[in-house]
Amino acid sequence: MFLGQFVHSFDDKSRLTVPAKYREPLAGGVFVVQGPDKNLMVMTAEAFEAVYQRLMAMNMMDPLARSLRRLILGNAAELELDSAGRILIPQALRETAGLESEAVLLGQGDYFEVWSPANWKEQAAGMQAAADNPERYATLNLTTR
Question: What angle do CA 51, 62, 79 make, to 5 degrees?
């Protein structure tokens, strides 16, 4: 399970260190895809397979389904976690997410997100503004029982 928030720098070879607590779930494979919010999503092989199966079950004649496939599958990359726990994110994906020297890694349960600090700051500010608008999350039914 991927939880928490971390800030890591890219090394001189453009590799990103994955937090130690995130590495074990990635031992079976690492997939990175473009996220919907100027970010990246890093998934285990199992999580990526579940997303892949859902995408392939969508009607290919539906323009929205085709667009989502292009976003996720057209930009997906299978990566390897090196012996030091680093991944090399393809340059095109780094550019799409605005990643330069630093990245914010944000746990999302079955996957984690990679954000540029500037994009994450903007996203976080929008989430904090939701405190002024409690109705925004009211329909999501987040309960403990």
Answer: 30
What ranges do the domains of the chain cover? Answer: 5-117
CATH of domain 5-117: 3.40.1550.20
Coil, strand, or helix at residue 19?
coil
Taking the C-alpha atoms of residue 89 and residue 28, their distance in angstroms, rounded to an integer, is 17
Q: Phi and psi (nearest 5°) for 63? A: -60, -35
Question: How far apart are the C-alpha atoms of 141 and 80, rounded to whole Å?
Answer: 37
* Burial zone of 132 (CB within 10 Å; 0-12 exposed, 13-18 middle, 19+ buried): exposed
Instruction: Tell me how crowded residue 145 is: count the other CB atoms within 10 A of its CB.
Output: 2
Residues 79, 86: Cα–Cα separation, whole Å:
10
Segment 55-114, tens digit of pLDDT: 999 999 999 999 999 999 999 999 999 999 999 999 999 999 999 999 999 999 999 999
